[in-house]
Design goal:
Layout (H helix, E strand, L loop, with lengths): L1 E5 L5 H10 L4 E5 L4 H6 L4 E4 L23 E5 L1 H9 L3 E3 L5 E9 L13 E7 L2 E4 L4 E7 L6 E4 L4 E4 L11 H12 L8 H16 L4 E4 L4 H14 L3 E7 L7 H9 L5 E5 L1 H8 L5 H23 L3 E3 L4 H7 L26 E3 L7 H10 L4 H4 L19 H20 L8 E15 L2 E14 L7 E2 L4 H14 L3 E6 L13
Parallel strand pairs: 1-2, 1-3, 3-4, 4-11, 12-13, 12-15, 13-14, 15-16, 18-20
Antiparallel strand pairs: 5-8, 6-7, 6-9, 9-10, 10-11, 17-18, 18-19
């Protein structure tokens, strides 16, 4: 199998997803893993991830025996710099920076770059760079700014690339992985959706056994799939609980209740007033998430006690985990707290079950399709756990919630009319904490501003703003200012991720 050694990169799980797309099994491992453990796991190939650190830092723990030539190795960004340092080359800090899309010139005679163009676009994200390669290594790629952007050893078993082939912005990244894993390492494609489902079910059985479990059901594809799988594996020992926190989109409560109430062991709890009361006058987004997370747990603990459950299951995905903290106790930098990860209280009455925590949205959708979930759930756009609370910037109340719900449904309706809804990753409205002057009916107005956010993505880790036609944007804007009372201006967000996030809070 492939072992991905994590040095804290925000993109580490993207490496795993790329490898899984090539139908090869892989696991993400902490950078302190020992050589003996890799041998025990029958690892044949090692990927060294990127990371926010510097190779000269004293607190870095890494077993140098991993690079003794027994494993095939590919170092990415920090990983390439680490290889260079450990074999006696030189890495300089801070003099040359490359960030974003960059032209890369590979040596196409090399197996790893077989089939690539002589000039290709890659994604760079580094301050440090290799200034001198170690003895016994060869330069196999460069950019305009840095002459050492890819290397390999003389035996053709250890490779390094300064760019990130795992992100979609590296145009031929998948081909690079395919060349490395198939042509150089000799691996065979044998990892598929059936095996992923089998692994999830096995984990649930081993962890829960004959005990009772409740599932936090939101109606999104993640929690919906988990509810169905839990129902299949645990039967009446599982109870899916849908909590209405008052922060859901228009018509969402009715749609979710109607779909699930006769299909699984299901309970609906209306706690909308409780959530709004606790969020009154709260402006800080991190505080909002903590309050929402704690309130959910209070409700689940109460309902779980009635049911006799020892476990709480959540459809947490990897982007939630990696943006909150490294799941491997690595040095990843926290971007924001997610209510179903960092927002949970330190002490809970439940043991947590998160069988999807190392999977991405596109993988979940493939599994959902395999078990015949309907399209309206599978294709539903991702929706944040804290709901509309993080799309109302600043404090919220019923009036502001109503404004956002009405604006948000217009965005969805117009994209569906234009047959664009299924072609974008996420589309929604954001209510800003500012007002602007306008003219309506020959009178001066001073009302709210709505920002429209529409992005394209594959996995949610990176995203680009969608180039929607002006005609559709005009229709969305006209409808919002005409139909939503209290709004007189609409703006369109054209920020990619990074540097921004998809959500505003």
């Amino acid at each position: 199998m492939v072992g991905i050694i994590d040095f804290g990169s925000q993109y580490t799980q993207l490496i795993a997803r790329r490898i899984r797309e090539l139908k090869i099994y892989c696991e993400i491992l902490h950078h302190t893993i020992r050589y003996e453990e890799l041998k025990r796991k029958n690892v044949k190939v090692i990927i060294l991830s990127g990371g926010p650190g510097h190779v000269g830092e004293e607190n870095l723990i890494f077993d140098k025996r991993i690079l003794n030539g027994e494993f095939y190795v590919l170092g990415i960004c920090f990983g390439m710099q680490l290889i260079t340092k450990l074999f006696g080359g030189y890495v300089l800090h801070g003099k040359i920076r490359e960030y974003g899309k960059t032209l890369f010139y590979p040596d196409i005679k090399e197996k790893i770059f077989n089939g690539l163009k002589k000039e290709t676009v890659v994604w760079m994200s580094h301050w440090d760079y290799v200034s001198k390669i170690p003895k016994g290594f060869k330069i196999i790629g460069r950019t305009e700014n840095i002459k050492i952007s890819a290397i390999r050893d003389k035996n053709g078993k250890i490779y390094g690339v300064q760019f990130h082939p795992e992100v979609i912005h590296t145009k031929e990244g998948k081909k690079i992985f395919k060349n490395f894993l198939y042509k150089i390492c000799g691996l065979k494609p044998d990892w598929n959706t059936e095996l992923i489902i089998e692994k999830i079910e096995k984990e649930i059985k081993e962890k829960i056994g004959n005990e009772k479990v409740i599932c936090a059901l939101s109606g999104g594809v993640d929690s919906s799939l988990l509810s169905i799988i839990l129902n299949n594996v645990c039967g009446r020992n599982s109870l899916s609980i849908f909590v209405n926190n008052g922060l859901l989109r228009k018509n969402e409560v009715e749609n979710i209740v109607n779909f699930f109430k006769h299909r699984i062991n299901f309970k609906y709890v209306d706690a909308s007033e409780l959530f709004l009361k606790k969020l009154k006058n709260i402006e800080d987004p991190e505080e909002k998430r903590k309050i929402i997370g704690n309130t959910f747990i209070e409700i689940f603990e109460k309902e779980g006690e009635k049911f006799g459950a020892k476990y709480l299951a959540q459809g947490t995905l990897y982007p939630d985990v990696i943006e909150s903290t490294s799941p491997f106790k690595g040095p990843s930098v926290r971007i924001k707290t997610h209510h179903n990860v960092g927002g949970l209280p330190e002490k809970m009455k439940f043991k947590l079950v998160e069988p999807f925590k190392f999977l991405f949205k596109d993988e979940i959708r493939k599994i959902a399709k395999k078990i015949n979930l309907p399209d309206f759930i599978i294709k539903r756009h991702p929706f944040p756990g804290p709901g509309l609370a993080v799309r109302i910037i600043g404090s919220l109340n019923k009036e502001r919630l109503e404004i956002l719900k009405e604006a948000d449904i217009i965005v969805e309706e117009e994209l569906k009319k234009a047959k664009l809804y299924d072609k974008v990753w996420q589309a929604f409205a954001v209510l800003l904490p500012v007002k602007s002057v306008g003219i309506m009916g020959d009178k001066r107005t001073y009302e709210n501003v709505i920002a429209v956010r529409i992005v394209k993505s594959v996995d949610g880790m990176t995203a680009d703003w969608a180039k929607i036609s002006y005609k559709v944007l005009e229709k969305i804007s006209n409808r919002i200012v005409n139909e939503v009372k209290g709004v007189n201006r609409v703006v369109y967000d054209i920020t990619s991720k990074p540097p921004g996030t998809i959500e505003w809070e």
